[in-house]
Amino acid sequence: MTAPIKSAAAGALLVIVLLAGGAASAAALPDDANTTCPVMTKEKVDPDLYVDYKGQRVYVCCTKCKKRFSQNPEKYLALMKSPDDKITSTVKAVPSPVK
Fold it and tell me: Which residues of 14-38 are buried (b: 16+ CB within 10 A; e: fewer)?
């Protein structure tokens, strides 16, 4: 069991430390990394959780998604967006049909 926070100042400091840690983690992603999880597509990725697949590093949001991606990577790669949409850069864009 954790000890309760005994003062407002200590609580505020804890919040600042947690927020700073999150910002530092997001900065750790390479420029060309996917920023949303290919399994849970609306979740931001954790820079410390990834799967290397066929020469590509694919970041995920949690250990459950890492396991799911590893079990069926082609399924989740197909769901990933193109590099032009700023969500991921692991899959090349497919041209739209001309009408």
Answer: eeeeeeeeeeeeeeebeeebbebbb
Alpha-carbon distance 38 to 57, whole Å? Answer: 12
89: number of Cβ within 10 Å: 19
Spell out the long-range contacts of 59-62 with Cβ–Cβ below 8 A and sequence spacing 24 or more: 59/29, 59/33, 59/34, 59/35, 61/36, 61/37, 62/37
pLDDT tens-digit map of 62-91? 999 999 999 999 999 988 865 554 444 444
- 47 Cβ neighbours under 8 A, 6+ residues apart: 25, 26, 28, 29, 33, 59
36 bridge partner residues: 44
- Give φ, ψ of 88 to 5 degrees: -150, 160
Total-model pTM: 0.57
